[in-house]
Automatic annotation (TrEMBL):
UniProt keyword Transferase, yes or no: yes
InterPro entries assigned: Kinase-like_dom_sf, Prot_kinase_dom, Ser/Thr_kinase_AS
Keywords: ATP-binding, Kinase, Membrane, Nucleotide-binding, Transferase, Transmembrane, Transmembrane helix
Protein name (record): Serine/threonine-protein kinase StkP
Pfam families from the UniProt entry: Pkinase
EC class name: transferase
Underlying gene: stkP_2
Entry keyword Hydrolase: no
Length: 475
């Protein structure tokens, strides 16, 4: 709330933002007063009245002073006061996973920064809780340097959460959004490490089911870790778990294998290879294979269409890389590249060329991409708050037991926005699953562009032949 002058800065705060800041422990009265002093000075220099300022100005000032980050400022403006979960203090939002929201947290006693994934109250149905427990068990059984490690799991009241290592850096989606497509060697470095993680998971009987750029984390030193087992399932559990949504399409539309659409109860490690191929395509072109359209349209295109050849989008992509991506993205899983180990083997010619400069350049990209995240609201995956949920005045302070409740509200309307980073669980309506695998278009992958060029060439030749024949017959 704007102040009438600089002499009453120690008065009791009048705004929801200030009250929430003090109640949460994120702000002290001295910090608020100092910020108002700074704002008053700037207003005087600009010959403006302090009455023209607002809580937004105060929030911006505190963010600029690095007392708050942008996410904390938004939460306080909405009257949120609880920023703890068990022994953890919530620092920032990281994103949305397959079964919950992920936050950057600090253990209040140990001072250790970790990632905390929370199952929202809107996902408290028995099947959702069972799926969350399944994710915890899956991560507990896996330990690999290219997989995000599980540290702990617990409950805070009726809130389930799991703790994983915090991976500094950026995910592949943010990285490419900020810097454009990767070079061939950089892509080989990232994809080979992701494939190594998948090889380990597959050998242990686990299918990830949500491989995508948003789940491929890259650290400032170039190390890649595969994240989010929220939709993962052990192959042996596919038929026996009553809570497993094995008759629904599970995953992210832009990276779903055809068989994950037509026969979601029969997915296999090969489905992850297809998704990794789509991720590889994205890494070297900056585009998903089938951009635009609704979720249903994307699912149909995964079944019936072939994407543009990467060379149409990035001319420097080598033919051998295109062939590898093609083999990873075959519509028919029987014709697809056999395993993650085979992907790594096929990448060896480029892996052998990777040197220190490749790691350094990739790390530099990651650092600058991470610096851009703060202001890039379009990439944040937390769900926006309904305006009806925000109340004003002192009664607007939200001290309920559920932390950061606004960020935990699910929005079904996101399914039809068809963003490549959003996982979905869609019950098949029959329209998108009617085509059997055998009826998919020609396995001349990326042949669409090549075939089109060949047809045009033949048409030109035929036209020239007709013209020559007509001229000849006229003599």
């Amino acid at each position: 709330m704007p102040r009438n002058g600089t002499d009453d800065l120690s008065d009791k705060p009048h705004s929801i933002f200030e009250q929430a800041g003090l109640a949460s422990g994120l702000l002290t009265q001295d910090q608020i007063d100092a910020a108002w002093h700074a704002i008053a000075t700037l207003a005087a220099d600009a010959d403006r009245s302090l009455e023209e300022t607002s809580d937004q100005v105060l929030a911006d000032c505190l963010v600029e002073q690095e007392i708050l980050n942008r996410w904390q400022a938004v939460q306080l403006q909405e009257g949120r006061t609880k920023f703890t979960l068990g022994p953890y203090r919530v620092l920032d939002t990281i994103g949305k996973g397959g079964m919950g929201y992920v936050f950057k947290c600090e253990h209040e006693l140990l001072g250790r920064i970790e990632a905390v994934k929370v199952l929202p109250k809107t996902h408290m149905a028995p099947e959702s809780v069972a799926s969350f427990r399944r994710e915890i068990r899956a991560q507990a059984q896996l330990d690999h340097p290219n997989l995000v490690r599980l540290a702990f799991a617990d409950r805070d009241g009726d809130i389930y959460y799991l703790i994983t290592e915090y991976v500094p850096g950026s995910d592949l989606r943010r990285l490419i959004h900020n810097h454009g497509p990767l070079t061939t060697l950089q892509a080989a470095l990232v994809i080979s490490q992701a494939a190594t993680a998948l090889e380990y998971a597959h050998k242990n009987g686990l299918v990830h089911r949500d491989v995508k750029p948003g789940n491929v984390l890259v650290t400032p030193d170039g190390k890649t870790k595969l994240a989010d087992l929220g939709l993962a399932v052990f192959s042996k559990d596919m038929a026996g778990d009553p809570h497993l949504p094995n008759r629904s399409i599970v995953g992210t539309p832009d990276f779903l294998a055809p068989e994950a659409i037509t026969s979601p109860d029969k997915i296999s490690p090969s489905s992850d290879i297809y998704a990794l191929g789509c991720t590889f395509y994205y890494a070297v072109t900056g585009k998903v294979p089938f951009p635009g359209g609704t979720t249903k349209e994307k699912l149909r295109r995964q079944l019936e269409e072939l994407p543009l050849t990467p060379q149409r989008l990035a001319t420097e992509v080598e033919p051998a890389i295109i062939d590898l991506i093609a083999d990873m993205m075959r519509k028919n899983p029987k014709q697809r590249i056999g395993s993650a180990a085979d992907v790594i083997e096929r990448l060896q010619p480029w892996i052998s060329q990777i040197d220190e400069s490749t790691w350094d350049d990739l790390g530099e990209y990651v650092l600058t991409a991470s610096a851009c995240d703060e202001d890039d609201s379009s990439l944040h995956e937390t769900t926006p708050v309904e305006s009806s949920e925000i109340t004003h005045g002192a009664a607007g302070l939200k001290t309920d037991a559920e932390p950061f409740a606004a960020a935990l509200v699910a929005s079904d309307s996101r399914l039809d926005q068809a963003r490549p980073d959003l996982p979905v669980i869609v019950v098949t309506d029959g329209a998108s699953s009617s085509a059997p695998a055998e009826s998919f278009p020609s396995e001349e992958f990326f042949g669409l562009g090549r075939s089109l060029a060949a047809l045009i060439a033949l048409a030109v030749i035929a036209a020239l032949a007709a013209i020559i024949t007509a001229i000849w017959n006229s003599f």
